[in-house]
Amino acid sequence: MNKLGRGHRDKVHQFMTITGTSEKAAYQALKASDWHLEGAFDAFYSQPQPKSYTDARRLEDLYNRYKDAYADMIMADGITLLCSDILVDHQDIVMLVLSWHMKAATMCEFSKQEFIGGLQSLGVDSIEKLREKIPFMRSELKDDQKFREIYNFAFGWAKEKGQKSLALDTAIGMWQLLFAEKHWPLVDHWCQFLQARHNKAISRDTWSQLLEFAKTVDPQLSNYDVDGAWPYLIDEFVEYLIENGIIQNGQLSDWTQKH
Amino acid sequence: MNSSNQKKRNFQIEAFKHKVVVDPKYADKTWKILEHAITEIYNHNASGLSFEELYRNAYNMVLHKFGEKLYSGLVGTMTLHLQEMAKTIEAAQGNLFLEELNRKWNDHNKALQMIRDILMYMDRTFIPSNRKTPVHELGLNLWRDNVIHSSKIQTRLLDTLLELIQKERTGEIINRGLMRNIIKMLMDLGSSVYQEDFEKHFLEVSADFYRAESQDFIECCDCGDYLKKAERRLNEEIERVSLYLDSKSETKITNVVEKEMIASHMLRLVHMDNSGLVNMLIDDKYEDLGRMYNLFRRVPNGLPTIRDVMTSHLRETGKQLVTDAEKLKDPVEFVQCLLNEKDKYDKIINLAFSNDKTFQNALNSSFEYFINLNPRSPEFISLFVDEKLRKGLKGVSEEDVETILDKVMMLFRYLQEKDVFEKYYKQHLAKRLLSGKTVSDDAERSLIVKLKTECGYQFTSKLEGMFTDMKTSQDTMQGFYAAYAAELGDSPTLVVQVLTTGSWPTQPSITCNLPAEMSALCEKFRSYYLGTHTGRRLSWQTNMGTADLKAIFGKGQKHELNVSTYQMCVLMLFNSADRLSYKEIEQATEIPSSDLRRCLQSLACVKGKNVLRKEPMSKDIGEEDAFFVNDKFASKFYKVKIGTVVAQKESEPEKQETRQRVEEDRKPQIEAAIVRIMKSRRVLDHNNIIAEVTKQLQSRFLANPGEIKKRIESLIERDFLERDSSDRRLYRYLA
User: Fold this and answer.
1) Which of B427, B606, B643, B664 is surrounded by the fewest CB atoms within 10 Å?
2) Average pLDDT, chain A
């Protein structure tokens, strides 16, 4: 390793930071991809995670640490404790990623199966190991495919049990959170529009189609196709943008709207 | 003689051993005879000749192999004679030129015939085997080359002919027989001669002539007159051809006239101020229109031009009609105007445009266009029908009734929003049935049948349900009175119509307090009915009933008042009170306030119907107003009609409400269509679903693509459909 040039050493360091792997693994991955960082990341993420050995006993203990006093699940208090243990704010998006790994049915609670299953799939069985996994989990948001999965998962997770649609306030909160990771210039306008014009819950179809919209249609709406089978709400959004002069002649003007 | 010496002799035919002495000058001599004969023939001296001798001479020449000499001799002689004839013709002065030509042509033909007869043998033997031109044809060719195409004749002939035609065109009389002969001569000489030497130039000159003439006409004539002139010229040319030109020229010359007189000026004619097509349409100028149609159909794009102008005019007038605020005040008038317009154009197309289908179609599409510009058209058409069925058709014969209903159906077909019409029709029908105000049951039924034929069973099943309810109610009433006959002797007569919810237009059912006599009676009916029909629920629709009251006023005037149920409730109160305030009436009757106000207005504020007196005498009903029976009430009729449950044009808020209900009704229809389509197609892309759904619903209304989209999303929500995972524009049916 000492024989590595400055540039290469930096790359190894970067790789390790982002993926959370060991120096050796980082070196091997980079070498295999001819010292191209992008290529190394691609290759790394497309591999299944090495199944590390997790101790069932320790997982059981861990669960019991967070489990609620009265119910056989982890509830709000337990989650707060978990967050402070791994040094993560409970509103941090990484908690969403963690929930996704656990395939949690609903936010603010984990069943025993979800908790243990999630940690197992991550290959961790202790607080320290979980803490170490955090950079990796953050990095997953950078992957297109995984982001989409997490995004779509978020809908089911964030909505009320037994409801078909997602309450508007919650949806807006989630969107703010998610699109902070994957920058979409129109997200604020979208949320404003919903509050001004829609004021109803968000359907699953609208939720998932919004991501497609953000990904395929450019913020100037130059390639927006009015016959593009977008949900009605999104069509209304486009109208709203044009009506209010936010998009003029294909230009996204400065947002100084007064409503 | 010894018989044995006789030799047997066979007949033997031996060739002529003697040489026939042919006079070397034989051919010359013979030819000279024939040559002389030809000259005599041309000099009209044929009578002295012997046909038989000449024939024999010609025959011998050919036989003795002098055919060539004979033929070339013929050519030479004939040429000479023709050249002489040409000189004579050339010398003719002025008018005599053609006559001379004609005469000489006849002479030549006669001569040619005789010559051909004489030379028949050569014509049949020598000529074909030596591939020479037959005599008759030769004669024509020589005539052509030496006379017609002679430099002094060719041009002069053409000029003369064209000059004569020009004269005739400007109204002079010419010798048509002579023309015919000359032209026939050219035709006989071969079609190329006719065409090159005459027809070609004739067409050119005609084109120039008509170009100039049409230019003159169009500056000074109005459209109708111009067309008359054009028609006249066209007919002239056709006549000219039939009289003295080759029939094959007819199409060519008519094309020239059509092009110069019609095609070149088509647009200017059609759009001429004060006399063009639009004016003709407005003024019903059938003859002019017919003429225009017949002339224009001859030129390319002629009829489409007429059709387009008619269409845009029709659309414009129609648009004005349906947006004219004045007309819109009276729905019946409005619809009548539409019908009048349709009749007008039907007549025009029938009389002037020979029922041309494409014009019919243009008419239909125009009507469809502007009728739907006004969203109230469905309502108004229903009101028109209502008026007719309530009173308009009184005394009208059955046939005429059918005619009017058929015309209404025709307007109905133009409507895009047929479901809106259905809604209004139902409302209006309900009112008619319940107030007993229909002129003819047969007419009502007839219209239902027509609607059913047009739109299918579903459209009319509820309407038919309404009729059934009316009939059933009659039977029920009979049963009721039969059962309670004894008890009801003194009670007021009750007539109940039992309506099946679902068939009748939905109304909010607000009850009011009926007078004691009535409520008791109603209760008896209710128990009777529920006794025979268990499991049903009855609710009194007091806002739809009527009553007949016998009243005696202060001065003893007796009247029978026909009023609404609400009005009855109010009036009956005055049997036990002289003065009642608005509030007291409201409390006692519990009639909703807006209805109560209207009711009191109709009883107290309308001249001739003011059975009540109000203090103060203002038009509006105030909370503090007081009411009295109007003892001074007077009417020349015994029966006074005050109640109004008659169909009227809706007010703004009512209209909004109806429109909203229609929109709501459309949603399940759209969804049903989507499900139907997806069930059979399984997978379909967005644009195709929109197109198919629109098509399926076309017969009822025009589906809004935005609304269809919303329904699709709703169906996705409810797990009927899903988006395809790879192509987001594709939808998949979920079983």
Assistant:
1) B664
2) 83
